[in-house]
Amino acid sequence: MERIYARTETLQQDKVSGFCPGCMHGTVIKLIGEVMEELEIVDKTVSVEGVGCCGLLMDYTDYDTTTAPHGRACAVATGLKRANPETIVYTYQGDGDLAAIGLGETMSAANRGENFTVIFVNNGIYGMTGGQLAPTTLVGMKAATAPKGRDPKEHGYPMHMCEILGQLKAPVYLERCSCNTPQNVIKTKKAIKKAFRNQIDGKGFSMVEIVTSCPTNWGMDPLGALDFLEEKMLVEFPLGVYRDRTKEV
User: What is the CATH number of the domain that holds 229?
Assistant: First the structure.
């Protein structure tokens, strides 16, 4: 009987996911691994994890990884790529890591057009550290540091990283995806593969933003979190390609 699906060998085969029920990190990590296998780059890839739930990637993967200080993943990735140009380097970061404490590093790397790939998991809240307000938390959405909900007068508005980086000249590819439906999972995999191909071809900075759910810190069950993602998160963060200069480079 022909096997139509197999677990990617980039995942540690003896590990069971410790992510919360309904969390999409496991799906994203699997998609990255499948892309690496299909592009035959597993043996020359290094991931740079941000602090938080993204840092758990190293517990479940079976290739080279390193963890950066909080917010510094793009800076560490810059050093890795410049010192070893033949190595495929990608960062795996959450919204607090990439868009809050790491905003300067993210903007600077994008503005320089560094030739690595950024995988940005946006679930609108700090996960592992306790559900605090993140740069992408929706207006009115409650958080540990905003118990009455995000108030623009006090906390500002949600930050839209694809749109912000799209104001810079250097980034070659920016796309926002999700994993809330099978169709969107397929689209997300295609976006991740394109971002890695851009790096292989030396085209420059690519970022794939993936809007995901965090049932635990949203205070919802997994199904309720999926509804919230579709009805609220994707309204604030529309999916689509925000920059694609691959044909120009």
Answer: 3.40.50.970
The DSSP secondary structure of 23-83, one letter per residue, reads: -SHHHHHHHHHHHHHHHT-GGGEEEEEPSSGGGGHHHHB-SEEEEPSTT-HHHHHHHHHHH
Give this prediction's pTM. 0.95
Asked if 62 and 34 touch (Cβ cutoff 8 Å), the reply is: no
Q: Provide the 8-state DSSP code for 237.
A: S
The whole domain housing 214 covers 25-244
Amino acid at 183: Q
Amino acid at 5: Y
- For 154-210, write each residue's pLDDT tens digit: 999 999 999 999 999 999 999 999 999 999 999 999 999 999 999 999 999 999 999
Q: What is the rounded CA–CA span in Å between residue 57 and residue 235?
A: 28
Q: What distance in Å separates the CA atoms of residue 201 and residue 208, rounded to the nearest whole number? A: 17
- Number of domains, the chain: 1
Residue 10 in domain: no
Q: Are 176 and 162 in contact (CB under 8 A)?
A: yes
Question: Shortest CA distance to 163 belongs to which of 198, 119, 121, 209?
Answer: 209
Inside any domain, residue 4: no
Can you name the residues that pair with 122 across neighbouring β-strands?
Answer: 211
